[in-house]
Amino acid sequence: MAARRISSLLSRAVYASSSIGPASLLLSRGRGSVRGNGIKKFSTAAATEELIIPPVQISYTKHLINGQFVDAASGKTFPAHDPRSGEVIAHVAEGDAEDINRAVSAARKAFDEGPWPKMSPYERSRILLRFADLVEKHSDELAALETWNNGKPYEQAAKSELPLFVRLFHYYAGWADKIHGLTVPADGDHHVQTLHEPIGVAGQIIPWNFPLIMFAWKVGPALACGNTIVLKTAEQTPLTALYVAKLFHEAGLPPGVLNVVSGYGPTAGAALASHMDVDKLAFTGSTDTGKIVLELAARSNLKPVTLELGGKSPFIVCEDGDIDKAVELAHFALFFNQGQCCCAGSRTFVHERVYDEFLEKSKKRALRRVVGDPFKKGVEQGPQIDEEQFQKVLRYIRSGIDSNATLECGGGRLGNKGYFVEPTVFSDVKDDMLIAQDEIFGPVQSILKFKDIDEVIKRANATRYGLAAGVFTKNINTANTLTRALRAGTVWVNCFDVFDAAIPFGGYKMSGIGREKGIYSLNNYLQVKAVVTPLKNPAWL
Ligand code: NAI
Ligand code: MG
Hints:
The chain is α/β, with parallel strands linked by helices. The chain folds into 2 domains: 63-309, 3-Layer(aba) Sandwich (Aldehyde Dehydrogenase, Chain A, domain 1), CATH 3.40.605; 314-502, Aldehyde Dehydrogenase, Chain A, domain 2 (3-Layer(aba) Sandwich), CATH 3.40.309.10. The protein has 17 helices and 27 strands.
């Protein structure tokens, strides 16, 4: 085994190394300019032919509270980084409890007194549509900013994430004037109706892996229902939310309706989760932090909480399908977005009859994966988000090796700057290994062998998570059996990571509470009021 490990460590995935330098050089050569307030700029003129970088500039680094960009109450800032190099690209206002107080006051006032919840739903819908149009107009620049601060391939951000962002706002704009209650045929002489009212001030805490998409999942339904918002971005990726929040105000959103505060979790995030004037909390991130915010909500004002947390999703390859297609889909299910997906297909279960062929081809596919500067055309994988995540992924790789899984390829760092990790494949993975139990959140595929459907159902479900699952089969009976038996919020059959605006998303077990997207997300942001009126005047009136 040792020999196999060493030889596989020598085989390297395709590494578009030549492209990592130039974009960073753009900044250090002085072609980019750094202005006050941490504003940094670079332009296409300075880009090499290989790089596809539209002009992008970091203009918004302060909190957006009550329609104004403001410094942190403390005057403090924190750095935002470029994960390609670790270099600082902006200094961003660092929020804590006082900034959250100010943002919540603005949101409270906008809800209690302001026009948003009282505005005609059609008007609200039109503002959401105008906003979506503005985002579409600025989508190249937004995709570039997302890549610059997050490290995801620019082509992915531009071609799939920005269009999905726009689609989500179109979708929820469509709902704004279709939310209404029921008349209820209750016993007795009463007219009974339900009013579906906005819940109030929504606190929203989002992670760094899909900064714009997470914004859309949470802000879209909350605003469509007439709520006001305080959103805290992840400390790693504060930039694009500020940019789009500015566009929202250009689209006519009244001040105080959407407030964006940057800052760290234990300070700004905890202040939001425990605020007495926040009526609802929505969180996406780790299961550990999910437990903390749920407890903070319970200990303060019992605000309802939706949680979208971690996962360890099985991807089940049955023996009857086209192996090449199965390999490609399983590869995508795990490696997409640098493996930084809550629903990543991180346990690839393969039927024993096709296991050897699948393994060999999966290894070859991982070795062909193009890793490099995410601004380069054709690059499939950029850097991990930061040093902490990079080290975490390397620790899990070490743990896989130590627990005697077979390292088929990858296993180390790529290049000597930034947070690039080699696409890594482990075989001979056993259910009780840490790499088969914990969320690695990196480009590390674990391949496990199974014999029959009953066995794989038990093993796939033997996890504390239940976010998603993938099934690859041509057999309709096998598909039906698996989709019903798997305890997961989403089961993708012969596809993976399909994220249409209308499809609900969320987890069973410790993967979360509640559903986002689609019609299901509206319930998170509505109160139901029963109004009961006698049909005839009662005798005492
Ligand atoms: P995290 O769950 O700690 O952070 C997510 C968000 O919660 C950020 O906005 C953060 O500032 C905030 N937060 C952190 N501590 C908080 C607190 N005490 N009170 C209120 N808000 C708080 O995730 P982190 O530390 O960035 O990553 C750790 C692991 O979590 C990752 O390695 C990955 O396994 C998982 N993760 C899962 C995500 C998902 O999509 N479900 C997204 C990001 C991370
Ligand atoms: Mg954390």
